[in-house]
Design goal:
This protein is mainly alpha-helical. The chain has six helices and two strands; from the N terminus they run ααββαααα.
């Protein structure tokens, strides 16, 4: 796969997940303006607990996917837009959950929703994580099972799909 196509795949992902969806959240919060709180400072402070780890997970997952997996994350409905991963990733952030990039994106969106301080803004992260959980089960995991076989099945049994087991994080 050419470098131009690979970078184009990253540009597409950034456009959708870091620009278009946050803009949609902002738009929805203006249509349905019911605020969470009359005091707007606590949601902004609390949002950092979601926003910062979310960005960090997205960045680390992408770097790990590029360096260790030898591919990129742009794969929708079993159609590769960019280079699919060539190696199974089970270390680093992929040791806390099988989809740290999705977890990071969800946390990032939750942070944005808190900053917007509108109940309606939370609809996007909730719909996003519900859809992505379905998508991963329907398309991504069957492909990973075909590509990596028993190694992926063992990984599935040991590591949760999206949300880390908090007691394993403390170890």
């Amino acid at each position: 796969m050419s470098k131009v196509r690979q970078w184009g795949a990253y540009a597409l992902g950034i456009s959708i997940f870091l620009i278009l969806i946050p803009l949609l959240m902002f738009y929805i919060s203006t249509i349905f303006p019911a605020a969470l709180s009359a005091k707007p400072i606590w949601p902004e402070i609390f949002s950092l607990l979601f926003f910062v780890p979310g960005i960090w997970l997205m960045l680390l997952a992408n770097l790990h996917m590029h360096r260790i997996g030898k591919g990129n994350p742009v794969d929708g409905f079993n159609i590769a837009v960019g280079q699919r991963t060539q190696r199974l990733m089970t270390s680093g952030v992929y040791n806390i959950c099988r989809n740290p990039m999705l977890l990071g994106t969800f946390l990032f969106y939750m942070g944005i929703a808190l900053v917007l301080n509108k109940w309606s803004a939370f609809s996007i992260p909730i719909l996003f994580i519900l859809y992505m959980r379905w998508h991963v089960q329907k398309f991504e995991e069957p492909r990973l099972l075909r590509d990596f076989g028993q190694a992926y099945r063992e990984y599935q049994e040991q590591v949760p799909m999206l949300f880390p087991d908090l007691k394993n994080l403390v170890k």
